[in-house]
Amino acid sequence: MHETYSSTAIHARGIPLYTVIVHLSVVAPPAAALSVIVWLLTKRRLGLATIVTTDTRAAATIFAKITGARLLKQRGYSEGQPEPAADHADWATYAVMSVCAMFATAAATWFGEHRGMLTFTRVAKVLLVIYAAVSIITVVATGHGGAMLV
Length: 150
Fold this sequence. Notes:
Elements: E1 11-12, E2 15-16, H1 17-42, H2 47-74, H3 86-115, H4 118-149
Antiparallel strand pairs: 1-2
């Protein structure tokens, strides 16, 4: 079921860009989740590092979604009708949403900590743990769906 990439695919050093970005979006979620856990458990001032990590993760996931949509078009499909990649495309959408929620919540948590907003920060930290877990689940599901296509 291996298909060759179109000559119009975006490449980075001879490798299709989608492949490079997908690997970054798969490596970054555990790093972001780990930084969230360390930040929340150690009570160290790692908020800014966590925001940068989740921001990188969000950007990689969004770019993976964009390059994946382009790859669908090259193969004669669209985001509206992505067969046979429907499950993979759906999970990718969920991954983008969960990662963006994790990034926004990390930023809100950091902001709340620096403004002394105790109740807000506690709620944001609970949401941050939930979004971190959901983002890992959605990335694993997206990756599994993509692996089933190869």
